[in-house]
Specification:
The complex is a heterodimer.
Chain A (H helix, E strand, L loop, with lengths): L1 H18 L3 E7 L6 H18 L3 E7 L4 H14 L4 E3 L4 H13 L3 E4 L16 E3 L4 H14 L4 E7 L2 H14 L2 E7 L7 H10 L3 E4 L4 H12 L8 E4 L5 H7 L7 E4 L8 H13 L7 H20 L4 H9 L11 E2 L5 E12 L5 E13 L10
Parallel strand pairs in A: 1-2, 1-3, 3-4, 4-5, 6-7, 6-8, 8-9, 9-10
Antiparallel strand pairs in A: 10-12, 11-12, 12-13
Helix pairs in contact in A: 2-11, 3-4, 5-6, 8-9, 11-12
Chain B lengths: L1 H31 L6 H19 L2 H22 L9 H23 L15 E5 L2 E4 H23 L1 H11 L1 H6 L4 H23 L9 H16 L4 H27 L4 H26 L10
Antiparallel strand pairs in B: 1-2
Helix pairs in contact in B: 1-5, 1-6, 1-8, 1-9, 1-10, 2-3, 2-4, 2-8, 2-9, 3-8, 5-6, 9-10, 9-11, 10-11
The chains are: A alpha/beta, B mainly alpha.
Chain lengths: ~375, ~300
């Protein structure tokens, strides 16, 4: 009898989504491989954000495996076979560079919770393409500005050899203004011993590196093992020191400098509500900026669904353009290319009472900044 | 000069890791004729088991034992359960089945450990760095990895050239039908070799775990280079795996470290970087093509 009841309740639970008249949202994200946790953060953050708006929705989640071809195949299926007109979720710029034109050409909307390659931000901008996170370059311009502000004049900049890596070094160099030695690493590389030797050899004043996910963990651990942590300071952008990376690296990360557009200690109602919702839903998992960006994406999409009252693309597009939502980062507006105009903060990584690293916000270093590509965008 | 020396050490360390993986793979390929794409999974199993136990117990050495045991047991179970049915099939079936094993192992690891990477710390003894030559502090753990790799190479040399099992292994690698015809317990030999290969891959995994992050799919990244080592060294030859592993490790590290810099002498910075990175990631495959052109069976082919 008990078993019968259990299976009956399972059946009911399974059946519920098909009764809900929610708008289908296609989520293409990276759930496998070394960066798999990034997609997990995005999926979970998006869900919490949408829930906070009370909109009726249904998520269709697929794993792109960080492969542009897989991403395009999934997008094709979602657009043409499942009739989905609202997509989001992509972590990596190489995937979004391939998928986004596919989506906008089909007349559907894509809202980016993370990747925002330079190629799509300028002349190729599109009314149906929104970015809630940041433009790739501006993410790293903040680090360039921070390194300059700290008085450094020579730097070694390291990033993987793909679009976001190139955007990272370009952005850092633009604001830093000093002498930069560029080193490109492999996209799948996990042993950086050779790069550590080069960093030691260059003897620059500061190191800037962009390695998201598992690569970032490996890089920081090896930086410490090579004995460089105490001798050459490092300035990081948020994807290279998210809270999962810090948890993995441990006390060794204390003393690093980072820049971010959001941090868990932000004192605004939206951020506090998100931190509480996350702690209740995923007590074991640290909350990263990936989840925060996805949460904001959820707020934007959910709000637009409520305003537009359904999935009519033109109405949704207009509702999103207004960006009428309380972002967890505080100030938020869309620029001419529908990428964010927002503030950037300097953070320090300090030790908490147990000695573990925690990110502490120090000061605002850039205010209401868009990106350099917005000027080329004619909509 | 210091930089060159440090890069040589890095190359050596990458080389012995490739050797640990390739030694098992080349024996399995050479003796049983099975293309085992899932060999990287044993590397991952070793790393995960080692990392998990060392987190639970706080001891790297406990983790090392656990990683070795887990990868050997998984290897033996895979041989008994799956591989045994594949020896008589053609290579396509073997590739399909072992590819399926990769997916199964990866997804099972996600189910057990989740997608968050595991992290271990270095054993206390090897946590620092020592100045091997003035001005070059080198992590002692990496020196330890090199030492372990070389010790395994010596051990395998003795096992293969000085023992009865080794004699059977050599015989099996050069003519497996004849060994079977002579009444050797070939089933037992296969299981033992498969277990040993998995154990060595697991050892490489445990050794890598404090350096790189322990995560699902970590084996897939390194298995491609391992196959290149096996092909260059000659299928079935442990000596070949050792020579090719070290050479490829050195070559890959040197190209990545110095090629972009060299190209920068001749052309503007960003293009030199892009070209240098491109060529150096092709480097080991170019080497494979060259070696196969001159010696189609690899450097030290066991089968004549």
């Amino acid at each position: 009898m008990k078993r019968l009841l259990t299976s009956a309740s399972v059946l009911v639970a399974l059946a519920v989504p098909s009764f809900a008249e929610g708008t289908k949202i296609g989520v293409i994200t990276t759930l496998s491989g070394p960066a798999g946790y990034l997609g997990e953060q995005i999926r979970n953050g998006l869900k919490l954000g949408l829930d906070a708006t009370g909109a009726a929705y249904e998520l269709v989640v697929e794993d792109d495996g960080r492969d542009p071809n897989t991403g395009v195949q999934i997008a094709d299926r979602m657009l043409n076979e499942e009739g989905i007109t609202l997509l989001t979720g992509i972590v990596f710029s190489n995937v979004s560079g391939a998928v986004v034109p596919e989506v906008t050409d089909a007349g559907a909307i894509y809202v980016s919770p993370n990747a925002a390659p330079s190629g799509l931000a300028g002349a190729k901008c599109h009314p149906n393409y929104f970015v809630v996170s940041w433009q790739n370059d501006s993410l790293h311009e903040a680090s360039g500005a921070a390194a300059k502000k700290l008085g450094y004049t020579t730097a070694v900049a390291l990033a993987p050899n793909y679009q976001a890596g190139k955007d990272a070094i370009a952005g850092f160099t633009r604001e830093f203004g000093g002498e930069v030695t560029e080193i490109y690493t492999g996209v799948e590389q996990s042993d950086f011993a050779s790069e550590m030797a080069q960093i030691r050899d260059k003897a620059a004043q500061v190191v800037f590196q962009f390695h998201p996910g598992g690569q970032g963990i490996a890089f920081l651990k090896q930086y410490q093992q090579a004995g460089l942590l105490g001798s050459i300071p490092m300035v990081l952008s948020e994807p290279s020191y998210d809270s999962v990376i810090l948890k993995a690296v441990g006390p060794a990360a204390v003393g690093l400098t980072g820049t971010t557009h959001w941090n868990a200690d932000f004192d605004n109602a939206a951020s506090k509500a998100m931190v509480a919702a996350w702690a209740a839903a995923f007590p074991e998992t640290p909350l990263t900026t990936y989840a925060q960006q996805a949460y904001d994406t959820g707020l934007l999409i959910g709000g637009a669904l409520n305003t537009a009252g359904g999935e009519d693309v033109a109405a949704l597009q207009a509702a999103m353009k207004a960006a009428d939502f309380a972002s967890t980062r505080g100030n938020f507006a869309f620029g001419a290319n529908q990428h964010p105009v927002q503030d950037w903060y300097l953070t320090a990584i300090e030790a908490d009472s147990a000695g573990n690293p925690v990110i502490v916000t120090k000061e605002k270093i850039i205010e209401a900044a868009g990106d350099v590509y917005a000027a080329d965008c004619k909509m | 000069m210091i930089l060159l020396f440090e890069q040589l050490l890095n190359g050596l360390q990458y080389g012995v890791t490739l050797f640990l993986l390739a030694a098992g793979l080349t024996l399995i390929f050479g003796i049983m004729g099975v293309i085992n794409l899932a060999h990287g999974a044993f590397y991952m199993v070793g790393a995960f088991a080692g990392a998990w136990v060392s987190i639970q117990t706080g001891s790297f050495w406990g983790g090392l034992l656990a990683g070795l045991a887990a990868s050997a047991i998984v290897g033996i179970v895979v041989e008994l359960g799956v591989m045994r049915r594949l020896y008589a099939r053609d290579h396509l079936d073997q590739v399909l089945a072992t590819f399926a094993l990769i997916l199964i192992f990866n997804q099972s690891t996600v189910l057990i450990f989740g997608r968050q990477p595991l992290f271990t710390s270095l054993p206390e003894v090897f946590s620092g760095s020592i100045e091997i030559i003035p001005g070059l502090p080198y992590p002692t753990f990496r020196l330890f990895v090199i030492a372990v790799g070389l010790a395994v190479a010596v051990g395998l040399y003795l096992l293969i050239n000085k023992t009865r099992i080794g004699m059977l292994v050599r015989a099996g690698a050069s003519n497996r039908q004849m060994v079977r015809a002579l009444g050797v317990n070939i089933q037992g030999l296969y299981t033992a070799i498969f277990g040993l290969g998995a154990l060595l891959a697991g050892l490489a995994g445990v050794m890598a775990s404090p350096i790189v992050s322990v995560q699902v799919g970590m084996g897939d990244e390194i298995i491609l280079a391992t196959f290149v080592v096996v092909v260059i060294g000659g299928v079935g030859s442990v000596k070949g795996a050792f020579v090719a592993g070290i050479v490829l490790g050195m070559c890959d590290t040197m190209l990545r470290a110095f090629l972009p810099g060299l190209l920068q002498q001749a052309m503007p910075g960003p293009e030199a970087q892009a070209l240098g990175v491109g060529i150096s990631s092709m480097g080991i495959y170019l080497m494979m093509a060259l070696v196969l052109l001159v010696r189609p069976r690899g450097l030290f082919a066991a089968q004549g």
